[in-house]
Amino acid sequence: MRRFLKKQSVTAGLPPGSLVHIGEKRTTTPKLTLFQYDEESLHEEELKDISDLDLTKKKKMTRWINMDGVHDTAKVEELGNQIKLHPLTLEDIVNTDQRPKIEDYDKYLFIIIKMIYVDEHQQEITAEQISLVLFDSMVISFQEGEGDVFNTVRDRLRKGKGKIRKSGADYLLYALLDAIVDHYYVVLERVGTNLESLEDVVVHSPTPEILKEIYYLKQDLVVLRKSVWPLREVISGLQRLETPLIKDTTDIYLRDVYDHTIQTVDTIETYRDVTSGMMDIYLSSVSNKMNEVMKVLTIFASIFIPLTFIAGVYGMNFHLMPELEWTYGYPIILLIMGLVGGTMLLYFHRKGWL
Amino acid sequence: MRRFLKKQSVTAGLPPGSLVHIGEKRTTTPKLTLFQYDEESLHEEELKDISDLDLTKKKKMTRWINMDGVHDTAKVEELGNQIKLHPLTLEDIVNTDQRPKIEDYDKYLFIIIKMIYVDEHQQEITAEQISLVLFDSMVISFQEGEGDVFNTVRDRLRKGKGKIRKSGADYLLYALLDAIVDHYYVVLERVGTNLESLEDVVVHSPTPEILKEIYYLKQDLVVLRKSVWPLREVISGLQRLETPLIKDTTDIYLRDVYDHTIQTVDTIETYRDVTSGMMDIYLSSVSNKMNEVMKVLTIFASIFIPLTFIAGVYGMNFHLMPELEWTYGYPIILLIMGLVGGTMLLYFHRKGWL
Amino acid sequence: MRRFLKKQSVTAGLPPGSLVHIGEKRTTTPKLTLFQYDEESLHEEELKDISDLDLTKKKKMTRWINMDGVHDTAKVEELGNQIKLHPLTLEDIVNTDQRPKIEDYDKYLFIIIKMIYVDEHQQEITAEQISLVLFDSMVISFQEGEGDVFNTVRDRLRKGKGKIRKSGADYLLYALLDAIVDHYYVVLERVGTNLESLEDVVVHSPTPEILKEIYYLKQDLVVLRKSVWPLREVISGLQRLETPLIKDTTDIYLRDVYDHTIQTVDTIETYRDVTSGMMDIYLSSVSNKMNEVMKVLTIFASIFIPLTFIAGVYGMNFHLMPELEWTYGYPIILLIMGLVGGTMLLYFHRKGWL
Amino acid sequence: MRRFLKKQSVTAGLPPGSLVHIGEKRTTTPKLTLFQYDEESLHEEELKDISDLDLTKKKKMTRWINMDGVHDTAKVEELGNQIKLHPLTLEDIVNTDQRPKIEDYDKYLFIIIKMIYVDEHQQEITAEQISLVLFDSMVISFQEGEGDVFNTVRDRLRKGKGKIRKSGADYLLYALLDAIVDHYYVVLERVGTNLESLEDVVVHSPTPEILKEIYYLKQDLVVLRKSVWPLREVISGLQRLETPLIKDTTDIYLRDVYDHTIQTVDTIETYRDVTSGMMDIYLSSVSNKMNEVMKVLTIFASIFIPLTFIAGVYGMNFHLMPELEWTYGYPIILLIMGLVGGTMLLYFHRKGWL
Amino acid sequence: MRRFLKKQSVTAGLPPGSLVHIGEKRTTTPKLTLFQYDEESLHEEELKDISDLDLTKKKKMTRWINMDGVHDTAKVEELGNQIKLHPLTLEDIVNTDQRPKIEDYDKYLFIIIKMIYVDEHQQEITAEQISLVLFDSMVISFQEGEGDVFNTVRDRLRKGKGKIRKSGADYLLYALLDAIVDHYYVVLERVGTNLESLEDVVVHSPTPEILKEIYYLKQDLVVLRKSVWPLREVISGLQRLETPLIKDTTDIYLRDVYDHTIQTVDTIETYRDVTSGMMDIYLSSVSNKMNEVMKVLTIFASIFIPLTFIAGVYGMNFHLMPELEWTYGYPIILLIMGLVGGTMLLYFHRKGWL
Between chains, do E306 and A321 touch, taking CB under 8 Å as contact? Predict the structure, then answer.
């Protein structure tokens, strides 16, 4: 559950705009890459230093600056100052436990969103905070660490596939959002595959261990839900926003992203319903098993206890027990025992316990 | 649960408008049929090739083009280009895991909806995606495979029954939507019949197997609900839309479809309530059964265990046990045993366990 | 659960306005009655034939036409054509599985509502669909069968009690709605009385049968709720409607009906809460009973099993068992048994199981 | 649960404005008291007869007429006619099973509200309906019986404390509402005290009886909730109402009453949450107890059953059982028994059952 | 649960504006501190007496008056009169069981909010009511007792860090609100840590005691929720308020506080979900344990009960039991016993109970 808790408390009481990194401590050096492109050309570059960033030249090109590693608050601040971000924006960028949101600072749009992917090493769902800043002809993206879901966007930029090189920064923003939301499907598919195999086990051969797996799956869904619900508001906010930063022609694409988000929300809700149903069936199969165990016990005990009693009676040492002297005493008593046992079996059969 | 999962992930990161078929792989050749009609005449034709489609001639007639088999993305694209559909529309048509929705592209209306029917071969509820495009005097419908719920509409067209031949493309759209929504009733009736027979079993003779059936029914309802809820928004969106494509005289018919949709939603919610109630009664009947088993065990054990103890005492081999030598020792002890057993029976009778 | 299911499916795909009767098949001949009245006079008549209906004469009188038996679709159509109802209205009238709703057709208002009453023969709650059509000076009511809740309204008309003869058709509509909604109280009272007696049984002497009764009561509430919730929208829709058909002076009476509807909804919700509470208490009293049974079993078994073991030991036939030869062996062993049993009793007493 | 049910049905079908008393039958004579006051003087009087009421004189004074005993419909009607109340208002006053509501009749405001107090004789929560009518300079309050929560208001009037004598009828209305809402706290405190002591019992020594107490507490909360929820709408309706009957200076006081109402609602919801939590903990403590009982049974049975078997073996009467003749047969067998028992104890200890 | 209950009832029926302290009785003397500051200078002072407060001089400075100890109603009233607070404001300040709210009294804004912190002595979550009053250039804060979360704000004031000394009273209000809301994180982190360790115990080694801890945690969350939900409305109300008291430049900071509040709400809801999940897993692990106990009992009883019966049969004293005389009677019977026991073991193994 480590993912529920981030050390928010260290910022309690600090003045607004204090840059304190919240989140996993990382030691890697932040990496800064720059894409500059227009319809004809593309220039891709890794920036050693933020001061290398020259925002004046090549004015007509669209720029995408990506920064990996927001734990280096000094670098974030340096970059932020150069492109004139509000201190509160910077605070939100480095504090990686933000709720997804969209804010309109007139000069730029600021979007916080959760990128979700399956960490291949640890085989678990990981959420990373992406902050996106949209200027008139520039997008800046801030990530927690290296590794992201933007490779397809980079490829499309490099190869000039589709509309991406012909369109402006708002289309690039859309492309990045789309890549993030599309990746939710990948994660949900994985969850769905888990769900399918769990369902199989639960319905056909439930074991106590399955319970913990259902539990962890449920918690994963709680966390996913917490990321996706506000996303819905973010994207619809983006659509409704009246800002010159987003052109009318991009609206239709945002609507598409919005549809995908809604569908993700729907899928998560469906999965939650399915999980609850699985929990119910598990619990009741436990009850059924107990019932079966009880029946076996009851049948054995109820048949043999009276028989043992009869044997006990004729094991008594009274001097005067006439039955003991009868020639056929023993076989008669065995017959009686057989009859008692048979009657019991018949009774349980009628009850439907056999 | 195969129906929860479609391989959405393959499109992650592709540029918008990439036509990737999502859904069951089908190998059949797509089939294209064309209805052209006005009040006087009807022309029905199966198109071998999309280029056979001549949209210029017979301008005053209403056209309905139906395509079975959206897995053939090349054909969808060819048709789409000829009638000038937006790339995003085409993407949604071939990606058959869309949420029902309505989109207004000014020149045309685009509607995605789920057609639900019971597959007679596999005896299970099947959902297929229908995409409807409404132009000024043309409706195009895209289906996943052959077989649909539109035969009654075709009959009405052929026979010229009712208003359908006298009215325009918007009325045809209504007729198609109405056929789809009406078919939800057929499916719900089937679910309802299942529910009725399950209820009968649950109330009168619950078995562990019934639990799985309730579980699958519940999942079916979850899936149905996921299809029907957005339908509600789609139809009400269609009513509120201010578009010249839908004439005022059609509004009243759309209101009728809307009423049917609401009723479908209500019925599903009622079924969900009923299913929960059945789950409760099943679980508690399991408890009752266990209780009964426990009572039988307790009665047998509690009566015979003390008696066996008494027999055990007089089976001891002490040299000096005066009772053993008494003439009436044995009958007295049998009498005592009878009294103890009788007292126990009386006690359990008082407790209400007998 | 027969009440959940009506054969809606037969209309799937038919053109709108097709008159197909949905609902219980009835064989009785439809009955048509006409009330014509103004402040001074009242004319009551049973119409043999629809053509007897002369809508031209006596223009200043208010008319109430009541038709029992909408299964005779031909008659409904004949009447509908004479008073110029829209085909969709007629379709809704004969299809008696509609959701309560209100529709404004400019020339008339169309209201569908459920009349609920306790069928005295079958002792169960029955819902019947009433369709009400309000013209400028005429109300037409369509019922499924004979027998209704309007007798008090008829009496008030005949006796000229209250405002009813002095007011117009809209007041008559109010009076009919009020009679229907008031009858919900009668049904709810009956449900409440059941609830009270069930509660008594559940709290003081729960039996497994009670569970089924709670279950059926719950289903009844589900069905009632499905009828009453939309009623709320219908009445509030009626209040908000801007139509000349309803005079301002009638508004205050509609507000009164609305209040009653809200209260009915509240009562149903309260009953649902109470039913859930009863379910909980039943289930937990089952647990308690099981617990008690287990305790008796445990006490008996745990006391006598060790004693029987001791007896068993001295029933062994070893040649050399010194205790057997002691003069006081037998009483000593009985004493030991008494001590062991007493200790056990003390232990269980401490545990609070006795 | 008698409080859920009032004989509403008797009014079904009666014309609106029929005065039928719904509610507990009372035999006491209605009591009518009148307060007339302005800043300087106060005149308090018990009216023997309604005709004693002279509404013409002393025009500048504020009047408060209080009537105890609405079961006397004749008196209510007489008073109602004298102050010109609408027939529907009178119907609502005598029908004491109304939902709290506010209605604006232009000339007067009509408020129905539930007064809740703990009946000291029967030690249970009692709800009584209060109807308040606000005229320009007069408030009339109708109560079901004697005894109310207005004594503090009367005292403030008599002593001229605070603003009450200086302000008009709307302030008096506020004071009465405030007294009623404040009394909800008294009742909720009592419920809270019960909750606290129940929680103590549930957490530390749950007994089956506690369950019924939780159940009744829950039902009390259901009833309280039903009274308080609509109250919220009533008070906020009162605030939003644009009427000259309420002066702007009184708004701030109404806001205060509104805050109290919200807080009451919050407290009830919190109590409901707490009650559910207690139910859960009770049920699971029952499970735990059962578990403990089962463990004791299992330990005893599992230890002694094998030992008794061994004893039984050497109690067999075979002629040739060599062990029986061994000199140390008996002690050896006792040792073996000790070992078997010890092993079992060790096993259960490892399982954590001891 | 002492925290649910405060003696609200003592104010029932008192005139509005009656200052009655609700809440824990405290005996300490109230403490009054004053900060006066502008960009250049800061003056900090502890006021012995309220009359020391001179509101006329140093007009251009911003003032922050903090009062610890609202139980001294006389002092609160004295201060209130000097700064001209409405009597209802004063009543709310001393009644410390208010719901968080915001009220606009034109001349000043009045905010009630709950300050939540972990009491280090009693190790439990404590809520204290803070009332904030915002004038044009003055903030007054009222606290229940000494000790608060404002030290960081005081430090920033003293050191002149950030914008705080350069901005006005509205920014100070923001800073105080921010400090309070930030402290919710500290408390939630603590709750989260508890949750994590509880989860660990529940999943790996649940004990009955854990249940009570989950229960208390749940109640804590109920109380936290009750404080935080209205906070959301308060802050968003503050943002929407059109008042000259709050400058436009402060809006962006309030939006930040609002985001934090939403996130707090989200976290509480997530924790509630997690707690419910833990409850489920606990309950079902109890069921599993019971199942395991039952299985051990059943296996032991079912194996040895038939064997004991066989031994009992050959312990009978019939004179004619041929088997007893056989030379190999004893070993044969032992063999049979072994076979029976082995068969049982095999059967249980097949059942999967071993």
Answer: no
Q: Which domains does chain E have, with CATH numbers?
A: 2-284 (3.30.460.20), 294-351 (1.20.58.340)
Contact by Cβ (8 Å): C105, C134: no
Counting residues of chain B whose pLDDT is more than 70, the rounded percentage is 92
Of E161, E186, E290, the CB nearest to A9: E186
The pairing of beta strand B62-68 with beta strand B101-104: unpaired
pLDDT at B1: 36
- Structure confidence at residue E175 (pLDDT): 92
Q: Are the Cβ atoms of A281 and B307 closer than 8 angstroms?
A: no
> Is residue B112's pLDDT more than 80?
yes
Q: Which residues of A touch E274 (CB under 8 A)?
A: 1, 4, 219, 222
Total beta-carbon pairs less than 8 A apart between chain A and chain B: 172
Contact criterion met (CB below 8 Å) for E301 and A304 = no
In angstroms, what CA-CA distances link B347 with B354, C285, D273? 10, 20, 41
Buried b (16+ CB within 10 A) or exposed e, D239-270: eeeeeebbeeebebbbbbbbbbbbbbbebbbb
Name the amino acid, one letter, at D238.
L
Strands E31-37 and D124-135: unpaired
* B291-326 pLDDT tens trace: 888 888 888 888 898 999 999 998 888 888 888 888
Position A2 pLDDT exceeds 60: no
- Other CB atoms within 10 A of residue D336 CB: 12
Indicate the length of chain E as a whole number.
354
DSSP symbol at A22: B
Supply the ipTM of this predicted assembly: 0.73
CB pairs under 8 A between D and E: 172
Q: Is the pLDDT of residue E119 over 80?
A: no
**Residues D271, D326: Cα–Cα separation, whole Å:** 74
In chain C, which residue's Cα lies nearest the Cα of D14? C152
D162 has a pLDDT exceeding 80: no
Please name which of A295, A85, C50, E335 lies closest in space to residue B290, comparing C-alpha atoms: A295
B88 interaction partners in chain A (CB closer than 8 Å) = 252-253, 256
Q: Which residue of D has its CA nearest to C321?
A: D330
Q: What's the rounded mean pLDDT across residues C33-44?
A: 89
d(CA A235, CA A102): 8
Between B245 and B288, whose confidence is greater?
B245
C-alpha pair distances (Å), E182 with each of E100, E159, E226: 17, 21, 17
Q: Does E298 touch chain A (CB under 8 A)?
A: yes
List CB contacts (< 8 A) between C277 and chain D: 215, 218-219, 222
Portion 112-151 of E in contact with A at CB < 8 A = 149, 151
Q: Give the predicted TM-score (pTM) of the model.
A: 0.78
D residues 207-226 near C, CB within 8 Å?
208, 211-212, 215, 218-219, 222-223, 226
pLDDT at D3: 44
- When mean pLDDT is compared across B132-146, B257-271, D10-24, E41-55, the lowest value belongs to D10-24
Among B158, B151, B159, which Cα is nearest to B176's? B151
Distance CA D320, CA D327 (A): 16
Note the pLDDT tens digit of each residue in A255-289: 889 988 988 888 898 888 888 888 888 888 888 88
Beta strand ranges found along A95-227 (DSSP E): 101-104, 109-119, 124-135, 138-143
Is the CB of B314 less than 8 angstroms away from the CB of A319? Answer: no
Instruction: Give Cβ neighbours of residue D133 (< 8 Å, ≥ 6 apart).
Output: D83, D85, D89, D108, D109, D110, D111, D139, D140, D141, D142
The CA distance from E199 to E271, in Å, is: 11
D317 in E contact zone (CB under 8 Å): yes
